[in-house]
Amino acid sequence: MPIKALLQRQLELVYQGSINPYEGRWHSVAPLADLLRKAVAAVENEDTRVVAAELTIHGVPLTEVDYRLSETANPHRLYFVGFKNEMVGRWNMLNYERIILYLVGLVALLVAAGALVMWMTG
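User: That's the sequence. What structure does it adopt?
Assistant: Structure tokens below.
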């Protein structure tokens, strides 16, 4: 599932209420400060002034992990999304060298077991 769709699905209400758009604490978050400045500038003139605003904030925790499976491997990115820690990028966690090693070991074990059965019955 794409990360944006997963983020949208797990959004939770963080804050909802009436605010004073001139209060400093709302301007400490840069994107929110920019939105408030634009909203106030769009309305204000000599006769009009914004005195209150309704603010609703939705959010979701997102943890981004950059890693390498070995020093020579390409970098990968893994995301843990939401409070349930759903993973995005699981296929990046596969180490193909290790999978091939296990498959070769399994084939060798099957050949050895087959040879042992042939030796015991023959």
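The chain has two domains: 3-88, 94-122.
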